[in-house]
TrEMBL record:
Protein name, entry field: Peptidase M20 dimerisation domain-containing protein
Organism from which the protein derives: Pygocentrus nattereri
Domain Peptidase M20 dimerisation stretches: 207-363
Residues binding Mn(2+) 2, per UniProt: H98, D131, D194
Positions of the catalytic residues: D100, E165
Site location (Important for catalytic activity): H226
Pfam families per record: M20_dimer, Peptidase_M20
GO molecular function, one term: metal ion binding
Family: Belongs to the peptidase M20A family.
UniProt GO cellular component terms: cytosol
Residues annotated to bind Mn(2+) 1: D131, E166, H443
Keywords: Hydrolase, Manganese, Metal-binding, Metalloprotease, Protease, Signal
Cofactor(s), names only, from the UniProt record: Mn(2+)
Amino acid sequence: FRFDELIKYVDDHQEEYVQTLREWVAVESDSSDVTKRAELYRMMDMVGEKLRKMGGKVELVDIGEEQLPDGSSLALPKVVTAQFGSDVNKPTVCVYGHVDVQPAQKEDGWATEPYNLTEINGNLYGRGASDNKAPVLAWIHAVEAFKALDMDLPVNVKYLIEGMEETGSNGLDAMIKSQKSTFFSDVDYIIISDCGWLSKRPALTYGTRGNCYFFAEVEGPKQDLHSGVYGGTVIEPMTDLIGILDTLISPSGTILIPGIRDAVAPFSDEEWKMYQDIEFDVESYREKIGVEQLMYNNKVELLAHRWRHPTVSIHGINGAFSAPGTKTVIPAKVTGKFSIRQVPDMDPAVVEKQVTDHLHSVFAKRKSPNKLKVKMIIGAKPWLADIKHSLYEAGKAAVKRVFNVDADMIREGGTIPIARTFQDVTEKSIIMLPIGGFDDGLHSQNEKMSRYNYIEGTKMFIAYLQEVAQIKKD
Ligand SMILES: NCC(=O)N[C@@H](Cc1c[nH]cn1)C(=O)O
Ligand SMILES: [Zn+2]
Ligand SMILES: [Zn+2]
């Protein structure tokens, strides 16, 4: 397979790879901010251009529009699909990734400019560096290396790169359904590298949590009021909102929504054993986060609550006064944003009803004249793979070849909204092959990707393509 030549090629081109990542990170492709939509469109064009230059058969697929809360609509970023090779005697893999990012501003507490990739001590800091631009580029560079050396790809490779993952992959479900018998007809396996290792040890990921994201809006007076002039005479929307949000979860982490845990699959002895065997240091995890105490101090419980129990997180309140200073306002309308991570066998449709019924019930008890509206904005299901599938054997072999260690078998607490759709609609097997570090700070200040993980990860993807080629077709 001339593996050594490919490895040398990657080493020789690492400066170019870092430079391309710098160009991609410079694009503020924040999918949650509609004012940045032009940047997102530009990002998708750049991905298409890169793949086209490599000789791929590239399409930018129109996936329609999204409806904005003010009633207007906005075009969704096109999805980039590409194909390299169509040899019927080889398996075909489809690499999925995303190039949209979470919001970031220097004032949030970044040490460097978030959209200016900055290397410090071997770490490449920038928004989207690890989630998910470097992994997408590593997959592109893996194929580029074969082509540059005029070597046949061991498998046919397709790419599906989207720009709305961070806001729930709007429009992608429908696109996958409509392309089931076209783009996906010859795809054998789906590969996703949109997650990270658990420790310094490389890992293979076999499960992700889903997510149900809610907006709870409480509306009262027709405009904001002076709290000195009107305070004590009106029932304040913010007080109502804080009151109902406080009924979602107890201080010790028990979810208080009736029925919410009914569908959670029991934690088996086999799982307990698997978690027990994973190398994971609770104390350094605690230190890295910078908290005095975690919810659980025992490794197995901590991992179980991170990966396979539902959790409630309260993210923010729209309409609330949040600027520095002491404005004495009573906000007229506030919207609480919270999400509930989903695990097998929870169903977002059931969760939506449980949460809506619960919030309306506790709100009714307050006898408030204000109006409550509850809306589920994202309803992404959890995903779980068969770890005995040959895709995982191939993954273990690729990790061993490049990193010379055995891969950890892990789950991911985050969500890849489209993973379950891929599985249900295409009925293909999926593997998640992370190259992100455990401390990359995804969605957080100072997100980074280490140069080591980026470059060695590219080599691991090359090895993986070779390993997958040896899987006997099902
Ligand atoms: N790297 C995957 C990721 O960060 N996914 C997001 C997707 C999401 C879920 N709900 C809203 N967005 C995540 O938060 O897990
Ligand atoms: Zn991601
Ligand atoms: Zn993300």
